[in-house]
């Protein structure tokens, strides 16, 4: 199953991808504007926008991963997700601490020195630009909120709730920029510190809400599956069992069968019986079944000493997949 086979999920993926590009565009403009105007508040808002982009990426991964029912990424957080999360948190932590130290340094200089410690200089076009960017972000968030019920995506819902829940921070930023434009330059470091602190709280909420969507919990206990499978004629053992999904709606199962050598020629029939038994017990189910022969026991070695016995490969080449 792929994205093309599910139009609803494909539209959700496209919406999130468009949202990501818009967020990255806003992030770039805010960073450039902050550099040009030396505004710590704009840098702090860019940091907050980066968290929104990170949230969008997590939602994209969650939507796309659901279409890989038998890949390694569906069983938990893959190395890519873990590495990406660590990199994002490290970058945000370093940038946030740098902003806070710079803002506090400016405030300390303003208190201890008569010289103008606030170097920010905003013009009217910058304020207008931020109004446009805020309106653009709100427009796409409102559209996503309007289409949540149609898409039925938990990842999209969590991301939309996060963005709309933090919209007041963008409003505070806009008010602060207007105040700076009116020569109230002390507002810049003060609001930069406050926005950075709230951004850390926002990041923690994103990690708590969206990372679990990348984790596919076990649907059926391996012991229960093994008990059913080993009752099928020809099956000696069942190992490396994995499952995910929701019992009664759709379950994906991956398992390795050890079958008796006498049933090697009818391995596909054994696999079909295993899948039928699992489907009878748990309802709609898709299975990927790997089959390998059981090694002969010690009595066989003693009874036929001239026979060349071969050990099964650790990773079998023969497998059966049920739809």
UniProtKB/TrEMBL annotation:
Alphabetized Pfam families for the sequence: Cation_efflux, ZT_dimer
Subcellular location: Membrane
GO biological process: intracellular zinc ion homeostasis
Membrane topology designation: Multi-pass membrane protein
GO cellular component: plasma membrane
Family of this protein: Belongs to the cation diffusion facilitator (CDF) transporter (TC 2.A.4) family.
Name of the protein described by the UniProt record: Cation diffusion facilitator family transporter
């Amino acid at each position: 199953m792929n994205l093309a086979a599910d139009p609803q999920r494909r539209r959700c993926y496209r919406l999130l991808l468009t949202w990501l590009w818009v967020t990255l565009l806003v992030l770039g403009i805010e960073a450039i504007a902050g550099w040009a105007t030396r505004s710590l508040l704009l840098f702090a808002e860019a940091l907050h926008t980066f968290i929104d982009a990170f949230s969008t990426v997590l939602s994209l991964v969650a939507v796309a991963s659901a279409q890989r029912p038998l890949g390694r990424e569906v069983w938990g957080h893959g190395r890519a997700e873990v590495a990406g999360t660590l990199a994002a948190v490290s970058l945000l932590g370093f940038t946030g601490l740098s902003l806070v130290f710079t803002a506090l340094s400016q405030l300390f200089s303003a208190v201890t020195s008569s010289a103008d410690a606030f170097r920010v200089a905003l013009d009217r076009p910058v304020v207008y630009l931020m109004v446009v960017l805020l309106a653009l972000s709100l427009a796409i968030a409102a559209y996503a909120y309007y289409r949540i019920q149609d898409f039925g995506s938990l990842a999209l819902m969590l991301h939309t709730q996060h963005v709309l829940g933090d919209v007041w921070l963008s409003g505070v930023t806009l008010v602060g920029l207007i105040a700076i434009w009116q020569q109230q330059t002390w507002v810049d470091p003060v609001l930069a510190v406050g926005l950075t602190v709230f951004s850390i709280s926002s990041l923690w909420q994103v990690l708590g809400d969206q990372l679990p969507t990348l984790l596919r919990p076990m649907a059926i206990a391996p012991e229960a599956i093994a008990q059913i499978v080993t009752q099928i004629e020809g099956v000696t053992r069942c190992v490396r069992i994995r499952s995910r999904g929701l019992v009664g709606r759709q379950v994906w199962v991956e398992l390795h069968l050890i079958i008796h050598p006498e049933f090697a020629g009818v391995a596909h029939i054994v696999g079909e019986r295993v899948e039928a038994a699992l489907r009878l017990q748990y309802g709609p189910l898709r299975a990927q079944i790997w089959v390998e022969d059981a090694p002969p026991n010690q009595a066989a070695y003693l009874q036929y000493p001239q026979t060349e016995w071969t050990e099964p490969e650790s990773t079998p080449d023969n497998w059966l997949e049920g739809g």
